Amino acid sequence: MNPKLFTFFIVFFVPLITAEAQSELGEGFFSPNTTEAETLYLFDIPNSRAGSQERPTDSITFIKRYANHVDGIGYAPQNFAPFHEKLDYGVFIIRVKRLGRDHHEIVINEETGKTAYVRAWQGNFMTWGEFFLICHSVEFIDKNQKVFDKPMIKSAGRVVSPTYFRARYIMGAWMEVEILGDDYNTVKGKGWIRWKKDGKLLITYNLFS
After folding, report:
1. What's the Rg (C-alpha) of the chain?
2. How buried is 127 (Cβ within 10 angstroms: 0-12 exposed, 13-18 middle, 19+ buried)?
């Protein structure tokens, strides 16, 4: 995980990915090393033929004013729509459908589900759990979802209001959270919530404070 991705703090809400994409959350996220390379190469099916030379089918380039600062995307394939891109704030995350040793299959259009491959060494991989741990807060999609004293629904559970939380630990489909007040900062207690079920998200999330 690249710590530089989340060094800026603004009020920002990240919308849910589409219902179609939610049916397959994937393995996590890929973040290109934009400070080390100016071009992220995309491939169709890497090394699909024995003995063939690997050649990119497309690429993404980055605009740099200074050596270590990226201002935006210079070029991207038509209809490029990643999970989230705001390079002027140091954020560029692409959902990973399949995690590989040499290449990752990434979703380059969240609306259509179109994918491409990238070389694994050209970026950093981050799991969903790691992503939630660096978000400022998370919220229930269904306000009637319950908070539990322990994971795996071993307790009766309770409905809280507002349903604002900050992730503390991730364990499978469960998340230990701090229960937040209306100001998103006051801690009103702790508990466990379920963040996914049947491959779909049960929460929304706020990247920044």
Report:
1. 19
2. middle
Structure token digits, residue 110: 């969240």
pLDDT > 90? residue 70: no
pLDDT at residue 53, rounded to an integer: 61
Fold of 132-206: SH3 type barrels. (2.30.30)
Read off the amino acid at residue 46. P
Q: In the chain, what is the straight-line distance between the N-terminal and C-terminal CA atoms, in Å?
A: 20
- Whether the CB-CB separation of 3 and 198 falls below 8 Å is answered with no
Give the pLDDT mean for 76-83: 94
pLDDT at 84 over 50: yes
Looking at the chain, which residues constitute the CATH 2.30.30 domain(s)?
132-206
In Å, how far from its chain's centre is CA 177? Answer: 19
Locate all alpha helices (DSSP H) within the chain, ordered by sequence: 19-22, 128-134
